[in-house]
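Quick question, first post here. What does this chain look like in 3D?
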Amino acid sequence: MNDFDDLGIVDSSWLTDADWAVINRLRRIHETEGQIAVRKALRALEPESYLRVAAAFFPNKVREAIKDEMAENGITEQDLREMAEKLHPSPTKQ
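> Answer (accepted):
Ran it through. Tokens below.
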């Protein structure tokens, strides 16, 4: 589905083909069974898929929720940068 404005998707940049299939399934569920069934289907998603789908609709809320959770666990943005650098060193630092 290319015309995602009618769905309320704000940022589709992280969505995979599988996520689009989930979104289309959620849309059909909403049309045939209603909002309660959509909530149940969302709860059944794998965490990674749920996060990408939720972020497509509410990127700012998801970003803030992640930041809040990190802060509660004492993880800073700098900590993440250092972890990423250890996993994938830049060519200039090798």
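Confidence is low (pLDDT under 50) at residues 1-5.
The chain has two domains: 1-57, 59-94.
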